[in-house]
Design a protein that fits this description.
Elements (H helix, E strand, L loop, with lengths): L1 H20 L5 H16 L12 H22 L5 H7 L3 H13 L4 H18 L8 H28 L8 H26 L9 H26 L4 H7 L3 H11 L7 H27 L2
């Protein structure tokens, strides 16, 4: 849980930073640079643990969880205003929970209600009246992004739990897993940018370079590592609801650090629902463990 809480704070801050500092830069370039920096940051770990017989599997997982997610997420901005992007990202917990239920062939309706509570809480904070063209296209693109990120989390957890060679108890082993995932994602994002990128918007000012370095090394590199590490340490339900845990923090940072207007009634109601969903998921897991 501490890993997931830390990343929720990290990503909540990053949303405002992207909006304020990288407007006008080709989004594909930003994604490719961030994922490339992720790979470079973790590359030295190969000196401690060389090779991985499942490198191709991990590259495919990374291309799905990070590469496909970023590409679809980026494309959605061509069809949606920013607030609707936030609205349509709230469904990731449903995908995480549903995929786990399908793979485990067992459905817990109580856990489903907890996940639904998390989605309702996020919706309370970000949903506004929809009045924009091409909403359906943008919505579908974001569901591709949500599904890719959610499936990547679930499949990585199952990979680590089923393959002793993953050995995620050792930070270096877990880091080597992420190297290959970042490489797969970076290759996919770079290929997309080369083919579909807007080369007229691929220049960066000096301050923007620092922002990209922070986003690539800290927000994405450290963030994705800690998220996947944390995902292996919590229940499926807790992992699902934590996918919306960044939203209360994002709203708070938007007000305190970036001077945006905030509806405090929505913040309290929505944030309360999310906090309650997380608490219930942890309580359910403790109760389940006590009966084992």
């Amino acid at each position: 849980m501490p890993y997931l809480i830390f990343v929720s704070l990290l990503w909540a801050f990053s949303f405002g930073l992207i909006k304020g500092q990288l407007a006008g830069v080709d989004s594909g370039l930003i994604a490719a640079l961030r994922l490339g920096l992720c790979f470079i940051t973790f590359l030295p770990l190969l000196f401690w643990q060389r090779g991985n017989r499942n490198a191709l599997v991990l590259m495919a997982l990374g291309a799905l969880q990070f590469g496909v997610m970023y590409i679809a997420y980026i494309q959605s901005y061509q069809y949606l205003p920013g607030y609707l992007v936030a609205v349509f990202t709230i469904f990731t917990p449903i995908y995480v929970f549903s995929l786990n239920a399908i793979l485990e062939k067992h459905f817990h309706y109580q856990h489903a209600l907890v996940v639904l509570l998390s989605v309702i809480g996020a919706a309370i904070m970000v949903v506004q009246s929809v009045n924009h063209e091409s909403v359906l296209t943008g919505f579908l693109l974001l569901q591709v992004a949500n599904l890719a990120f959610g499936c990547g989390q679930v499949l990585y957890v199952r990979y680590c739990r089923s393959d002793p060679a993953a050995n995620t108890d050792k930070p270096s082993s877990d880091g080597v897993n992420m190297i290959w995932m970042y490489l797969g994602a970076a290759l996919l994002a770079s290929s997309y940018t080369i083919v579909f990128g807007d080369f007229e918007r691929m220049s960066l000012a000096s301050e923007q370079i620092w922002v990209v370095l922070y986003l690539g090394v800290i927000s994405s590199g450290l963030g994705f590592y800690c998220w996947n590490k944390g995902a292996t340490q919590v229940s499926n339900t807790t992992l699902a609801v934590m996918n919306n845990a960044y939203m209360p923090f994002a709203v708070i940072f938007a007000f305190t650090l970036f001077g945006e207007e905030v509806d405090f009634t929505r913040l309290l109601l929505g944030g309360g629902c999310i906090i309650l969903s997380v608490a219930l998921s942890v309580l359910m897991q403790k109760r389940y463990d006590s009966y084992r």
